[in-house]
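Hey L., structure's done. Input below.
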Amino acid sequence: MHFLLPVKRDAKIVDKCNALSFDTAFHYGDKTLQGKKVLLKDSRFLYSFKDAYRARKEEQAFLNQAIKKDSYNKEQYEEREERFGTIAFISDLDLTLVDVYKIYEERWLLELMFSQYKGNLGLTTTRVQGDYSVIGSEFINFISTVLTSRMCKKAEECGVLDDLSYGDMMEDLSSVFELMVKLGLAIDPTIKRKRGRPKKKKKGTNQRENQVDLEKIPSVAMLL
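Output:
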């Protein structure tokens, strides 16, 4: 079994290995990143990254907080400036920087899947009772989440997520689905249906319905 664990950006091992002195840069999707890979003495690897966009956001948040509290400290800023937008990992695997960052991004994809499960798919409420009904309902929810995950993976392989975020892609798909509903090519999921199972017909109901009421049939004499 192997591992890939996050390391605090201010951990001693990060400073000891000079891991924030990045020696390469690359793009991952719409992100501009710097990275460094360090081989440790115990044959483990230390991977460090800096996201340019996140670094600006963290710096802006730090300065806004300092201005709000009127507590700007030059030494504190210079100490944190180097670490804005950085993350680090330690692993027993010899991987490329792109592969490590991809694994990190897929972790966030799981968070998005949980958000999709709870929010967009509306799967947080179980409207059934009984053990087997609950198990069946959760199984369908699981299938829905798996289909969504595979859809995202396919979109990434086709390069769709290179120019669009996950949220933008879902908005576009939602617009297409609404158009399909208007054209009659899909069923509107917002149509309310009666909850619960359909009522069972009593035994003999069909027989009674099929029986002919002899009193309502005109006699032969009347027909003549």
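Residues 131-157 form the longest helix (27 residues). Residues 162 and 209 are 63 Å apart (CA to CA).

-- N.
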